[in-house]
Amino acid sequence: MPAPKNVILIGMMGSGKSSVGRALSWALDWDFVDTDALIEDQDGRDIIDIFEGDGEEYFRQLERGVAVDMVRWEHTVVATGGGMGAQPDIADALQEAGLVVYLEASEETLWDRVSKDETGAPRPLAMARDAFIERLEARAPRYEELADIILPTDGASIGELVDFLVDNIQRSN
Questions:
Q1: What is the CATH number of the domain that holds 56?
Q2: N or C of the chain: less Cβ packing under 10 Å?
């Protein structure tokens, strides 16, 4: 495997993309970009307001634009939004942008992470469990197909996940 110019983290909400991404970018001394935060900065609204104001298709168009831009980036760890890795029409751009890593977690782990905030209180944006599981089941095969590496996260610390990825990236140099 040639050395990646970027690392693209995909997976469901709660899989650890932002946490692992920040730690990995620090370990590699690379830039870090969270695509949802980038879209919010570019659009001037938060994700909820984008969805409510212009709908999901508009948001997906914004994601496509970010994916095309990603191809030009170098030495960047990218935490994608949960739906970005599930869009077949941007798969080529994501793969061209760098090493695509699917942070895989069990249904139970993901639900535990997304249904509560850091204090253990319910998160206001969490959807019903059935809808979340349905979305996971629809997206997981797309994530698996797109990924260069499928990295199970259940029971692993952020440090262990980062060490694994750094080792793989360094071996490719």
A1: 3.40.50.300
A2: C
Among 48, 17, 2, smallest CA distance to 143 is for 17
Closest of 81, 86, 15, 9 to residue 48, by C-alpha: 81
Residue with tokens 């993309």: 17
**Phi, psi of 6, deg, nearest 5:** -150, 165
Residue 173 within any structural domain of the chain: no
**Are the C-beta atoms of 102 and 151 separated by less than 8 Å?**
yes
Quick check: 63 and 90 in contact, CB under 8 A?
yes
Residue-wise pLDDT for 36-95, tens only, equals: 999 999 999 999 899 999 999 999 999 999 999 999 999 999 999 988 988 889 999 999
Per-residue confidence (pLDDT) for residue 97, from 0 to 100: 95
Q: For residue 134, what are its two tokens?
A: 């349905």
Token pair of 129 as six digits: 């469990």
Whether 112 is in a domain gets the answer yes
pTM higher than the cut 0.85: yes
What distance in Å separates the CA atoms of residue 1 and residue 11, rounded to the nearest whole number? 22
Angstrom distances, CA of residue 101 to CA of 10, 38, 40, 92, 123: 6, 20, 23, 14, 26
Half-sphere exposure for 37 (CA within 13 Å, toward CB): 7
Q: Give residue 119's pLDDT band: very low, low, confident or very high (50, 70, 90).
A: low
